[in-house]
Write a structure and sequence with these properties.
It contains 4 helices and 7 strands, in the order H-H-E-E-H-E-E-E-E-E-H. The chain is α+β, with helices and mostly antiparallel strands.
Length: 223
């Protein structure tokens, strides 16, 4: 086996250092998203973290539907998730763990999945309700002007249940608890692509699947 020249070694090291830097930056984008979300900074989520130049930028949430296009995603974060801006008593904490991240060989895109144990305190019919909320997240990232941005964001719901009831006890209500219908012009402009919230008859699937090493982005693997 031929020995690598010093130039080849240098190029290999530069490429590996860039890959490690990219891995850190992708994780940082995803972590910052959930810190902003907990603080109700949804406009900042869109402005700072989402792709601004990709026409197919998207956000899909459980069985709510998919918002696809810069205008649609901006509506979601500026007008729906932000709401009236009154967050008194409300609290949304979605931590992320067990990351599995791959940077494309060409360095232009990345893919990652995370588990997310969390809890929510939201107003339902004007009354604050504490809930357990567990999800998975699958996200495609794209590098714009040298910075990693969220390209396709997908929240896969696992269960959402009152804090004093188990997900087994509450499973019959799961579809109603996790549905979210938005009927006006701000609503999703695409149907959701996957939903498998917990019930006593559901079967866990490898969705979203951890990404495998890849050279260039394949639309068939989109989260």
């Amino acid at each position: 086996m031929a020995k690598m020249t010093q130039e080849e070694i240098n190029k290999s090291l530069v490429k590996e250092i860039q890959r490690l830097k990219d891995l850190h930056e992708v994780q940082e984008v995803m972590s910052r998203y959930f810190y902003y979300h907990t603080a109700g900074l949804h406009k900042e989520c869109y402005d700072e973290l989402f792709a601004q130049k990709a026409p197919d930028v998207s956000a899909e949430i459980a069985n709510w539907g998919m918002w696809e296009s810069p205008e649609a995603v901006k509506n979601l974060y500026y007008k729906i998730l932000y709401g009236d801006g009154d967050y008194a008593g409300q609290m949304f904490v979605h931590s992320i763990d067990t990351p599995s991240i791959q940077i494309a060989g060409d360095g232009k895109t990345a893919k990652g999945v995370w588990f997310s144990p969390g809890h929510e305190t939201a107003k339902e019919n004007g009354v604050l309700q504490p809930m357990w909320c567990w999800s998975y997240f699958g996200t495609d990232f794209i590098k714009e002007d040298g910075k990693w941005r969220i390209w396709h964001y997908h929240c896969y719901a696992m269960f959402r249940t009152p804090f004093n009831r188990s997900w087994v006890e509450a499973n019959e209500e799961m579809d109603d608890q996790q549905s979210h219908q938005i009927s006006d012009s701000l609503g999703p402009n695409r149907p959701y692509t996957y939903f498998n919230g917990y019930t006593t008859t559901s079967v866990r699937e490898l969705v979203p699947a951890p990404p495998k090493p890849y050279e260039t982005f394949d639309p068939a693997t989109r989260y």
